[in-house]
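Problem: given the chain below (237 residues), write out its structure.
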Amino acid sequence: FYVTIGKNGTGKVTEGDQKTPVGVYFVTGFIEPDKLPDLYGDGAFPINYPNVWDKRYGRTGYGIWLHGTPHGTYSRPPRDSDGCVILSNQDLKSISPYIDEGQTPVILADSIEWLSVDDWKRQRNQYMTFIEQWRNDWESRNADRYLRHYSREYSGLGKDYEGWVQYKRRVNPSKNFIRVKLIDPSMFLYPGDERILVVTFDQDYTSDDIHRQFTKRQYWRREADGEWRIIYEGSVS
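Solution.
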């Protein structure tokens, strides 16, 4: 579909720069048209800009939405928003049935490189290998094996790397068993920086004293030694 982007193009950094962000985002809800000025047409899907990666780099701003056009206006010029992605009302209605709050990814990129199905499968299998190894090492209860999957620049779940190391070296060996299932994982290389992989899945965790299931999102980074490690993880609210 044809879309309108920010007046100053892409690569949003600061509030008011009238640029559309580049990155991996997720739809967070839907705002009905009767709650919006006519500027937004047949409604709006906010996305989670700034995401955790944007915040790490100090990017600011808010209110980046996918939305429609004023009634009586079929489309707007290619660069005519303050950072939002704008579709015609007809196109917005076409994509709306496929959008699930909190689940639907919105990949904002300067360009698209199409892969063959075989290449796509090969890449997915490659990424699933180290994600599955992380899961296996967690179930092993061996803290050192588990922690090798975390970057020294890790932060997440309220802890930095050293805090995470201390916590897991205390908790993992104390369990009689750990079982972890990863349900419906999705993986996206980060536009503009393919050293970053955004992974989302439903995590079903069981140990001798806890059972918990929630949606988790991780940011993996390919580091200088060529290994992929987790630089951030947290629950998806």
